[in-house]
Write a structure and sequence with these properties.
It comes from Maribacter aquimaris. The structure is a single chain. The chain is mainly alpha-helical. 73% of the residues lie in helices and 4% in strands. The chain has 16 helices and four strands. It has helices at residues 3-30, 46-79, 82-93, 97-130, 138-170, 174-196, 198-201, 211-222, 259-264, 267-282, 285-307, 311-315, 324-364, 367-380, 389-395, 401-409; strands at residues 204-206, 230-233, 244-247, 254-258. Helix 11 runs antiparallel to helix 13 and helix 14 (367-380) packs antiparallel against helix 16. It binds zinc ion. Residues 276, 280, 354, 357 line the site of zinc ion (ZN). Zinc ion binds next to helix 10 and helix 13.
Length: 410
């Protein structure tokens, strides 16, 4: 296939994806004013529901603005030879393919981040602020960015350098070595993310002794779940939205509760949320997700190895000299329809897993506190109670609230 036809395929992929997303958002927005299902009448009072409607509409309009802007930016960049310009600049810095690639990606990432920062700033300090969610200070916002850059430079830069080095050394077989490194890295991050990365952004401490801890330990013992690490994280530093998650496995497994969750829910509700998380662990969802993400990475890297040596894939993004880094960008866009499909499958499985974890909590603890906790969490994040089924199918990793409540009541 020629580079020109590949160029048009890339443009078509970007435009078609934009049209699909925009149509889904539009369909979803048409459902905002649907009547609230009977089982969910008690989530909001009239005034709060009004507020949640405005929140959804504001986010919808803002999302449309940012996605349009980003499409136009990408199309403009592609057609005006932006990648060629950056590539030439990166080549003037060094002759080493690894350094050229690092400079190339650094410019693209920092450049696009600088362009999109005003949108992120507006979202946090205007939209989230107006609806009372935002607790982030401007200092936290910008230091988060700097820390993010630093992490990206060390981890992203390190992995990219290593992968290109494999390519220089092993040719198209690089994918096997790259896969091994990425798989080990994924495992390592799953085990030590909470220990190494979270402290860079948040304070976390062990859950203090008291009736909540006693209750949690009592439940854990009952279901035969050894839990030594329960942490509380200062999520309230950034937002009023609450959360809880599970990470690691074996001795490194730990439960992290947001301080906002502890403030918003009563003790039974917190244990119910925890029981749901334990359900994910007991039903092997954590291991399943880890293994499938590693297999998917292997599949992607293998496909990449088939295209990486075709100069057309590089040149389709407008550069004159083929290279690993340019081909990576071209491949990234050409691959996105496939990743849409794998994403769909993963979302579908994830929704199944949510029901299984809910059932586990229902059978080993109780349904009622889980229902009230889910309702409180939905209320506190002004969630959409009436999403469009097509939108749920494409985007939701969790079933909509009404489906979960119905399942828990069944
Ligand atoms: Zn879950």
């Amino acid at each position: 296939m020629t580079q020109t036809s590949l160029f048009y395929i890339i443009i078509a992929i970007l435009v078609i994806e934009f049209i699909i997303e925009t149509t889904l958002d539009h369909l979803n927005s048409k459902r905002y004013n649907d009547p609230i299902p009977n089982d969910l009448q008690d989530v909001f009072d009239a005034e709060e529901y009004q507020k949640s409607q405005e929140y959804k509409k504001t986010n919808y309009k803002f999302g449309l603005l940012t996605s349009t802007f980003s499409l136009l930016l990408t199309l403009g960049f592609l057609s005006l030879g932006g990648f060629e310009w950056i590539d030439t600049w990166a080549r003037s810095v060094s002759d080493n393919p690894i350094i050229i690639a690092l400079v190339f990606f650094a410019i693209i990432m920092i450049g696009s981040d600088l362009i999109t920062t005003p949108f992120g700033y507006y979202k946090t300090f205007v939209i989230e602020e107006r609806f009372g969610f935002n607790k982030t200070s401007k200092t936290t916002f910008f230091t988060d960015k700097l820390k993010g850059y630093l992490m990206m430079a060390i981890i992203g830069g390190g992995l990219t350098a290593l992968i290109i080095w494999f390519f220089e050394w092993a040719g198209t077989n690089f994918w096997v070595y790259a896969w091994a490194v990425v798989a080990i890295f994924t495992l390592f991050m799953n085990l030590f993310y909470s220990r190494l990365i979270v402290p860079l952004f948040n304070k976390q401490k062990s859950l203090e002794e008291g009736s909540l801890k006693t209750k949690i330990e009592g439940y854990a013992q009952k279901v035969g779940f050894e839990i030594r690490n329960i942490f509380v994280i200062d999520g309230s530093k950034r937002s009023t939205k609450a959360n809880a998650y599970f990470s690691g496995f074996g001795k490194e497994k730990r439960v992290t509760l947001y301080d906002t969750l502890i403030n918003d829910l009563d003790e039974d509700e917190i244990v119910a949320v925890l029981a749901h998380e334990v359900g994910h662990y007991k039903r092997h969802h954590i291991v399943f997700n880890l293994i499938s993400s590693i297999l998917l990475t292997g599949f992607t890297l293998f496909l990449l190895s088939l295209f990486i040596n075709s100069p057309e894939v590089s040149m389709a993004i407008g550069v004159s000299q083929p290279s690993f880094h340019a081909a990576l960008i071209g491949f990234g866009i050409l691959y996105s329809p496939i990743s849409e499909v794998t994403g769909l499958i993963m979302n579908y499985l994830s929704r199944k897993f949510e029901y299984q974890a809910d059932d586990f909590a229902k059978n080993t603890f109780a349904a009622k506190p889980l229902i009230t906790s889910l309702k409180k969490l939905s209320k506190n994040s002004l969630s959409n109670l009436t999403p469009h089924p097509a939108y749920v199918f494409m985007h939701f990793s969790h079933p909509p609230l009404i489906a979960r409540v119905k399942n828990l009541k069944a």
